Amino acid sequence: MWEAVETLGDIYLATSEDTITITGWPMAGRTPRGMSWAEGEDILYPPFDSTKTFVFADTNWAFATLSCRDGILFGDVAQYYRENSPLTNVAFSMNAETGSTLWHANIINTLGTVMNYPAVGDSLVYYGGQAGDGIYAYRKSTGMLEWTANSGSVIGSSPILDGSRLYAAADSIFCLDRYTGRLQWSFYQAGEGPFVFTPVIDRLNSYAVNYSYGTGPDYLYAFNKYSGAVKWKVPAKVSYSMAVDDNYVYTYLEDSVAALSKTDGKAVWTYYNRDIDLYAYYYTYISIDDEHLCFTTSMDPDSISRLTVLNKLTGAFLWDHKFARITEPVIANGLVYVIEWGSDSEIRTLWGFDIDTGKTVFQDNKSLYFDLIVSDHKLISGIENGIKIFYNAPETGMKYAEQIPLSFSLNQNFPNPFNPVTKIRFSLPEPSEVDLAVYDLLGRKVKTLIREKMDSGKHSVDFNGSDLPSGVYIYKIKASGSCLVRKMLLLK
Length: 492
Description:
The chain is an all-beta fold.
């Protein structure tokens, strides 16, 4: 176990630029921070005036889980050979504009559906396996197998990239060198359940939940992401996803959803709903953006599922909707998208809700939808035998800035940390005199970004810190008789 197959090409060094690019993957819930949020998206918005449907050339392919980078889709599909025969899994690459398949390859010794998403790097793309070797690295351009790592089954756990490292879970949580497949560290606690779901990563730590299969407590662990040293662990409920931001870790506890301190794992806030028995639910997911936390519960004993949206800073309830069964929420441009699986498995509805109000903005049930991602101003879903894409033609695309916000808000800058340029976004519910400036930690103003009257709507401005030293800076906005403040990190 853990002997990597020899590499077949050059070894590439990770750069800070590459790390920032990777952090922006439009993978559903499978970014390092697990946010499931297309942070930079400001164009995609219903009604969509254009669609594309790409049907797989191989009629035995079905059920794609997708990732996307630079206009290229990477997927993992189940392949049926004949009735009552085992499934195999196929890795493939497809041009997202034309639908042409660029390459495909059988994932060796892998049977059935693996339920994970490919991780797309600069030169390699990484897939999980269910049998045999657990991690497979292919050349993005050709599909040539570069290396494999004998980690054991990673079914349900997607590989996550962070700098030069790859993280995943296969009984143990482990970290590999993403260019060679060599093991950096792994952790398994005897007497506890295995780590079976996708970990999340921040600047210093990795976080993962183990699963006792009902024989004992489950725990959320925080590790030093470089060494694997345990920092803390707290009792938690197994879930298919977590999320982390600059402030907290967001997860499921025994009977509630919570924001936990990254220092010691103590709850900062919890949300409890007596109508939701978390232990009765399966397929629980969390997604976050700057201001909201969306979580799902699915398949309780009464076949009721929920999408619930909270204020991420306080845990206050905003709204919820009930369904038969739903998939992981994906956030983009002020909407949260989910797929509802009806009581009839042949009917699936793609929903888009305003994330502030819960108002239905988009609905479509014309295809048998599976997982969702957002990329390049497109909403992309796997369907039964292909891929379907929703988008707006360039001349008619609606921008979220045209939608009038309900409240005054200041978003976290993106990217963060940054070098040297970052984007600051804010919302005005009414026309206002705006004063937006950047300060150092001593309170000295280092740059004025905006000082003028602005219309209501969503706005953004770039901040260039090329003439400033590395460090923490504060940006403050005054408008509508209020003042909002956030921190950002310039890292050169």
